[in-house]
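Service request form, structural biology core

Requester: graduate student, group of Dr. S.
Request type: structure prediction, single chain
Budget code: on file
Notes: please return the result as structure tokens.

Sequence provided:
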Amino acid sequence: MEGVTVVILLALLQFAVFGMLVGRARGRYGVHAPATTGHEVFERYFRVQQNTLEQLVVFVPAAWLFATYVSPTWATILGAVYLVGRVLYLRGYVADPSKREIGFVLSALPVVVLLLGAAWGVIRRLAA
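Core staff response, request fulfilled:
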């Protein structure tokens, strides 16, 4: 379970870093709080952070449940893929939103697998 704990901590740290990048983009592109629009590149950083939050809400409990009811090793591996996917999503989306697909798939697919696997593991345990 330590691997899953590390992956979840890294995901939370990654989200914090993405938030700092949004703050830096606010200053660089002159988008003053509370505005969330104003410069296209700022808006890209902001959308990456918001999309990451949306993914994180499902990723964290799904990873923990999958590790508990299916496999901590596979939860760790899927979590690592998620982390890499989020970085690729950030890089692609900020450069050109049409280049975000690979990063999105590499972060969304592990979340789906974790969620469905966790549900399967819980149902299997309840049925035993």
